[in-house]
Amino acid sequence: MVKAIVAGNYGEGYRLAGEIGAETLGVVEKVFPDGEQYVRISEPEKAKGSKVVVVSTMYPMQDQAFIKLLMLGDALARSQAAMYLAVIPYLAYSRQDKVFMPGEPVSALIVVNTLKAAGFRKLVVVDFHSSSLLSQLNDYIVNVMVSDLLVKTLMSDAERPVILAPDKGALERARFAANSIGVDYDYLVKSRDRVTGEVSYTPRELRVAGRDVIIVDDIVSTGGTIAEASRMLMKQGARRIHVATSHGLLVGNALTRMLDAGVRRIALANTLGVRVDHPLVEYVDVVPRLATVVKEILGSEP
Amino acid sequence: MVKAIVAGNYGEGYRLAGEIGAETLGVVEKVFPDGEQYVRISEPEKAKGSKVVVVSTMYPMQDQAFIKLLMLGDALARSQAAMYLAVIPYLAYSRQDKVFMPGEPVSALIVVNTLKAAGFRKLVVVDFHSSSLLSQLNDYIVNVMVSDLLVKTLMSDAERPVILAPDKGALERARFAANSIGVDYDYLVKSRDRVTGEVSYTPRELRVAGRDVIIVDDIVSTGGTIAEASRMLMKQGARRIHVATSHGLLVGNALTRMLDAGVRRIALANTLGVRVDHPLVEYVDVVPRLATVVKEILGSEP
């Protein structure tokens, strides 16, 4: 029998538990007055001998969420679960996926390897940032792409649409959506004018004039990159700019920043513990797709 | 050549670096707008081939401090340090040192084992809470006791002093201070009146009437236990109550709570990233003792 533990930071997890037919195990979660976290599985005897799916996310409060996952892993090992995996729709620290400058850690690997050491059999993640780590980690991270779902919700009123990745690193995500829907795609190239020093973003091959552009990316944090890209594309004659991003962290005034730069609609996945409420922002439910993936894993893992 | 890295949360670390004759390596520390942390060793080439002492503490913001330590460990491994250890005057999560109720994790072991996996050769800790883990962990944690130093600063105006541990678990700490100074010690026993149901704390053997009591403990968080003990001891005729606690987290109104309950003076160790400023609170510098211990380790570790 499959059991699920849904961490308090990701309410969507209850539907996931339902869709995979798992019984939800209760967890006591609290924070002591001094800031230390505490968790306890309410009925550990139900975890014993079971396959357990832990559902949590890592935004907001990335560090707290990480430690809570380690605690749940430890509690499940001690409760003698047959095996346990984690569904972490948003896996934080994934952008620090290599040593960009000497002296840096690779935080993404720290997070993943520590969760592995905590006994999680696999991590199921929505739109993991780092393609290089995905190939390095030998299927330990199961990446669930959702850019097609996000783009589809924006297609209803799109004219001559084109999908653009904001950089070459995000191209795979754009291609995935474009191919499944059947529209053109390209990526933006950053260039600097040799005389004025001005930086600009232009699509590598396509022309955007008169077309609706859908920018596809995985994480939108301060909205700076998208705002800049949007302004450039508008200058190049784009008709309208839409944004399809899996993880809408939307820090500070990110939303205003993008809308001011000409963005008309934003589609986000429901991967975080928070949501913004705004008429131009639409959340796409990725729980059914996660459920399909989790069921497959549970079927194949002993 | 020994190098030191002092994390931004523990300014006392610079003196420690000085006392062990280490060159301090710069670290860039920042927090991204979305809350993720970033660290980078400024001159990693200086870490290469060196013994490196990382000095950080785990209060306030235990979870952030923990992850920063993991990042520094990873960065040092990648910078090819010959070996590195961590001085963590206050090691958080040490109170959850066993499964008190089924379904719980052992958070103290998670923290210690994860730091070990991050490559820290040893952890040097002031007054580690868990005696059971100290014996389990095969000298991985080097525990630096300081209760004698704290008690000494309170002895100047103590009359017929007696040292009391608030429970049997803290007895070793009380004994250590008492033996090094040469005064009586005992521990408090919690008992419940069978008729009224009232809980009281009384010393197991000694009488406190007319004597100055110095309560010795490792961590004071909300001050609840000490306030209660203080009230009981005053009822039993104690002359004055002093408190010697290594880690003064002093959450919320902890200080007022203790002073209201009759506590006259409080001695704390400088193990945290924060201090309170109050005429009845005195900080005792434990850096020289830490330095002695670190020098010994560096001398014996290849």
UniProtKB/TrEMBL annotation, chains A, B:
N-terminal signal peptide: none
Domain Phosphoribosyltransferase as annotated: residue spans: 147-247
Residue stretches making up the Ribose-phosphate pyrophosphokinase N-terminal domain: 17-119
GO cellular component, one term: ribose phosphate diphosphokinase complex
Cross-referenced CDD domains: PRTases_typeI (cd06223)
Taxonomic superkingdom: Archaea
One GO biological process term: 5-phosphoribose 1-diphosphate biosynthetic process
Pfam hit, one: Pribosyltran
EC number(s) stated in the UniProt entry for this protein: 2.7.6.1
Coiled coil: none
Swiss-Prot/TrEMBL keywords: ATP-binding, Kinase, Nucleotide biosynthesis, Nucleotide-binding, Transferase
Reaction catalysed by this enzyme: D-ribose 5-phosphate + ATP = 5-phospho-alpha-D-ribose 1-diphosphate + AMP + H(+)
InterPro entries referenced in this protein's UniProt entry, alphabetically: Pribosyltran_N, PRTase-like, PRTase_dom, Rib-P_diPkinase
Presence of keyword Transmembrane: no
GO-annotated molecular function: ATP binding; kinase activity; magnesium ion binding; ribose phosphate diphosphokinase activity
SMART domains for the chain: Pribosyltran_N (SM01400)
PANTHER family membership: RIBOSE-PHOSPHATE DIPHOSPHOKINASE FAMILY MEMBER, RIBOSE-PHOSPHATE PYROPHOSPHOKINASE 2
Annotated NCBIfam families: ribP_PPkin (TIGR01251)
Family: Belongs to the ribose-phosphate pyrophosphokinase family.
Name recorded for this polypeptide: ribose-phosphate diphosphokinase
Source species: Desulfurococcus mucosus (strain ATCC 35584 / DSM 2162 / JCM 9187 / O7/1)
